Amino acid sequence: MPIKTILLHLTNDSQLDARIETALGLAVDNNAYIVGLYTIAQVTVPTSFMGYVPPEFIEQSRKVEEENAAAAKAKLESLAARVGRPVEVVIEEGYAPDLINTHALAVDLVIVGQGDPDADNNAQSRYIAEEIVVSSPRPVLVIPFAGKYRNFGSHIIVGWNNSRESSRALHEALPFLEKAEKVTLLSVNATNDESRETAQILAHLKRHGINAEFKSGHWPGLGVGDAMLDALVDYSANMLVMGAYGHSRIREMVLGGATKSILEHMTAPVLFAH
User: Between the chain's N and C termini, which has fewer beta carbons within 10 Å?
Assistant: First the structure.
């Protein structure tokens, strides 16, 4: 299924411009529509107030958030106008993952940022990706905090282990795989002979016009996540597709080791599906 509607999470961090450029690049390539969603977090009261919240603090905090939202909206609309792509911007208050997941019901792809690894004082922004990759109803493309990614996906590595999660991720990534110059299915530290299943998935992809290759590698002493990050460098790939392992609870995250490792140390855009 082609990508026709993209949900882009808008923030006020320094990498917003880069994420907008990524989203617009995909919109241009796919003739897609972008919905920008700016989520305003509820005011967090400093512990120094000792139970008393001055009204002016709430008013000022709200004003700053509204200004940030307006700036992000203007930025998306301005950059979209340059490339002639239609966009709309929604500004809502609440818990960001819940709001994103609600809007994700009516899109093909969700784009969020990795989050600033040094932003210890902004837990909501920092951990949005961790929650979304295992709770979103649609595939999630996470963009690294560092770098620009207008052009990516010429060589895509797909983490493959013949599981439901890896199959879901692969099929959600078809719009990307069909345009890639090279696709590599990567099995990390496999212990069983899965040659029959591998032949089936390669034949299936070929019917989609995708001539993928399969590699099975062993990385002694490394977990699956770190091994896939190394493989991106070893195989000169610039995008990773993988199933997200873990589950979401109300305000609590439990992630699989590979998912958590990649979200913490990613060096290329990663498409997750759960």
Answer: N
The count of C-alpha atoms lying within 13 angstroms of the C-alpha of 37, restricted to the half-sphere facing its C-beta, is 25
Do residues 114 and 179 both lie within one domain?
A: no
Over residues 27-78, the pLDDT tens digits come to 999 999 999 999 998 766 555 555 666 677 667 778 888 899 999 999 999 9
* Residue that terminates a domain, selected from 143, 171, 195: 143
134 and 168 in a single domain? The answer is no
Q: Count CB neighbours of 53 within 10 A.
A: 12
CA nearest neighbour of 180 among 242, 241, 230: 241
This prediction's pTM:
0.90
Give the separation between CA 117 and CA 21, rounded to whole angstroms.
21
Phi, psi angle pair for 202, to nearest 5°: -65, -40
pLDDT in tens, 112-153: 999 776 765 455 566 888 889 989 999 999 999 888 898 899
Measure Cα distances from 27 to 6, 20, 21, 71 in Å. 8, 10, 10, 21
Query: Is 228 contained in some domain?
Result: yes
Same domain, 123 and 16: yes
Whether residues 102 and 165 fall in one domain: no
